[in-house]
């Protein structure tokens, strides 16, 4: 029973059919494509209605001057008339489609038209022309390197080989197409190739192999059925049993073949179905029934293959080739005319360029003569300017050397101070005093590290804050976490900050990280500290967080008595930073820094 979508589909068809005149006037290109698709979708259920919509799409495409829709409509009409057994009309439409596609050089549509024309010739038993057009289809598929189209082309060629009794060649191609379709997971192609291989084995009287392949198709038919596949399979199974003189088993399939061909109104298929049923009844020794179906076969064959239609079919190829030659000659003439116009244009352009060059050369010569004296004066001034620039460049280089030397000396002096503090710490016994010396030493080293980086980079505008802070964090970790029980994670944006921003930022990190090492993990248990510095639109975010015991909730950094926190607060004020402290699951200190300056990194 048709499902809901089936009814919905034909309801849409009904709406279109009752408003065809309006639609023909207002259709767009997209709607023409939709009607062509609709015609194809319903062609197996109602070929007459499909024909109506293909003609409507053709008319609308012509009104819109939409060549793709027009070619597609011609192709659909060709397929429909082929199903109706009117091969002459089918070929006429297919050749019209091919002419349009060749004019617009659409290789994909040309491939399909070659395939369709080959199919018409095959059903007319014109195997020479069928193979010719299938090979043209194959050439396009090879050029496109399209595996699916290659498989389809080889499948059609194999059908012709089988009809020519080139059984081994046909079997080889069917096996090749089966491997292609399997690789693509193209189930209809797999089933079609499998059924055709079974047909070959039937021809070779290898019935066990044939039966094995037919069963593979039958097992999958329920989920992947189509009228064409069922037609092919029912006819093949009827012949399979007939070749073994099992007419009683062949009869249901032969009769089903007639029913399917009649329901889909495929007269070409119907004539062969009549022939198969006649042969079946003959084998069953039911002479009257056999004669009846032979008569049906002959009458339908005479209708399809009448003399007038065959003459028209034989002329269609000639007419197409003549029209194709005329198009090629017209295109060649157009190209020749275009080449002549291009030559005249290029000749005029060349003469114009030569004339322009002569005029420009005369103007330049005139200007050169008048500017010689001016150039003498300018050269004298340039010499003076160059001498001044050389002198200025020398002064700048000397300034840079002096700045570098200053930073180097500042760094050395700070390291000397750090060493003095370290020596002083050796002579102290009070733990609080030792920690104070140790903290001061770390602050001095933080500033010394910044001057060292300035000196090493030979760029005094600023420093790469990521490299500086990562090295600073590593130094603090080595000082306060000798057994490396605390994990340090850094997430720092690559920013080039000036000195005035970098020094307080480095000291802030030093103070807050030192506090974390000293107070977050009192029992020296394992822990984790994250140092994060990210840039936002108008501020920097600095976050120092740990998973330690947490700072007291009553603590207020603005009223802190701890010197480190007092210093951190003062540095935050210098950077115009808002400081917030969160003591849930450890301690997280966040500073929103509003005063900072990004410098230009000249080493990049």
Strand fraction: 5-15%
- The share of residues in helices is over 70%
| Assembly category | single chain
SSE succession: HHHHHHHHHHHHHHHHHHEHEEHEEHEE
C-alpha termini separation: 73 Å
Give the C-alpha Rg.
45 Å
By helix and strand content, what is the structural category?
Answer: alpha+beta
Contiguous uncertain segments of 5+ residues: 1-25, 553-557
Q: Helical stretch count? A: 21
Largest sheet: 5 strands, mixed
- pLDDT averaged over residues: 77
Q: Strand order within the widest sheet?
A: 2-4-5-7-6
- Given the C-alpha coordinates, what overall shape results? elongated
Q: What's the total count of β strands? A: 7
Descriptive labels:
single chain; 604 residues; alpha+beta; five-stranded mixed sheet; two-stranded antiparallel sheet; 21 helices; 7% strand; disordered N terminus
């Amino acid at each position: 029973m048709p499902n809901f979508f089936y009814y919905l589909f034909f309801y849409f068809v009904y709406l279109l059919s009752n408003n065809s005149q309006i639609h023909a006037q207002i259709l767009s290109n997209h709607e023409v494509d939709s009607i062509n698709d609709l015609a194809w979708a319903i062609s197996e259920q109602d070929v007459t209605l499909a024909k109506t919509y293909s003609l409507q799409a053709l008319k609308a495409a012509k009104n819109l001057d939409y060549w793709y829709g027009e070619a597609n409509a011609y192709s659909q009409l060709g397929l429909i008339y082929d199903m109706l057994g009117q091969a002459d009309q089918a070929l006429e439409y297919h050749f019209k489609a091919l002419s349009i596609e060749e004019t617009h050089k659409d290789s994909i549509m040309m491939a399909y038209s070659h395939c369709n024309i080959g199919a018409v010739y095959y059903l007319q038993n014109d195997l020479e022309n069928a193979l010719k057009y299938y090979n043209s289809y194959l050439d396009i598929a090879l050029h496109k390197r399209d595996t699916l189209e290659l498989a389809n082309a080889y499948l059609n060629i194999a059908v012709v080989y089988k009809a020519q009794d080139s059984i081994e060649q046909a079997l080889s191609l069917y096996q090749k197409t089966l491997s292609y379709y399997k690789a693509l997971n193209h189930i209809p192609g797999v089933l079609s190739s499998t059924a055709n291989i079974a047909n070959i084995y039937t021809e070779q009287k290898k019935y066990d192999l044939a039966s094995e392949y037919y069963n593979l198709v039958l097992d999958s038919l329920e989920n992947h059925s189509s009228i064409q596949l069922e037609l092919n399979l029912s006819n093949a199974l009827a012949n399979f049993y007939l070749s073994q003189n099992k007419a009683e088993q062949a009869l249901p399939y032969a009769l089903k073949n007639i029913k399917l061909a009649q329901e889909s109104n495929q007269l070409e298929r119907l004539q062969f179905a009549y022939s198969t049923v006649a042969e079946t009844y003959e084998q069953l020794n039911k002479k009257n029934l056999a004669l009846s179906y032979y008569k049906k076969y002959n009458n339908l064959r005479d209708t399809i293959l009448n003399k007038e239609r065959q003459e028209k079919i034989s002329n269609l190829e000639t007419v197409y080739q003549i029209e194709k030659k005329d198009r090629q000659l017209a295109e060649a003439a157009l190209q020749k005319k275009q080449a002549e116009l291009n030559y005249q244009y290029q000749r005029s352009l060349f003469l114009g360029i030569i004339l322009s060059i002569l005029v420009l050369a005369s103007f330049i010569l005139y200007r050169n003569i008048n500017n010689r004296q001016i150039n003498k004066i300018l050269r004298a001034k340039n010499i003076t300017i160059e001498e001044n620039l050389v002198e200025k460049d020398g002064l700048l280089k000397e300034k840079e050397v002096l700045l570098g030397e200053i930073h180097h000396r500042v760094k050395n002096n700070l390291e000397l101070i750090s060493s003095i503090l370290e020596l002083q710490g050796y002579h102290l016994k009070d733990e609080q005093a030792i920690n104070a010396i140790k903290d001061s030493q770390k602050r001095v080293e933080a500033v010394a590290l910044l001057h060292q980086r300035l000196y090493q980079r030979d760029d005094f505008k600023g420093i790469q804050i990521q490299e500086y802070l990562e090295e600073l964090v590593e130094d603090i970790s080595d000082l306060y976490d000798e057994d490396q029980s605390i994990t340090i994670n850094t997430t720092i944006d690559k920013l080039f900050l000036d000195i005035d921003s970098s020094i307080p930022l480095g000291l802030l990190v030093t103070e807050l990280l030192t506090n974390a090492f000293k107070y977050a993990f009192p029992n020296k248990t394992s822990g984790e500290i994250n140092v994060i510095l990210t840039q936002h639109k108008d501020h920097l975010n600095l976050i120092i967080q740990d998973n330690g015991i947490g700072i007291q909730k009553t603590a207020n950094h603005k009223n802190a008595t701890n010197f480190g926190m007092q210093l951190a607060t003062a540095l935050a004020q210098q950077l115009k930073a808002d400081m917030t402290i969160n003591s849930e699951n450890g301690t997280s200190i966040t500073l929103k820094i509003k005063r900072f300056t990004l410098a230009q990194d000249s080493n990049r």
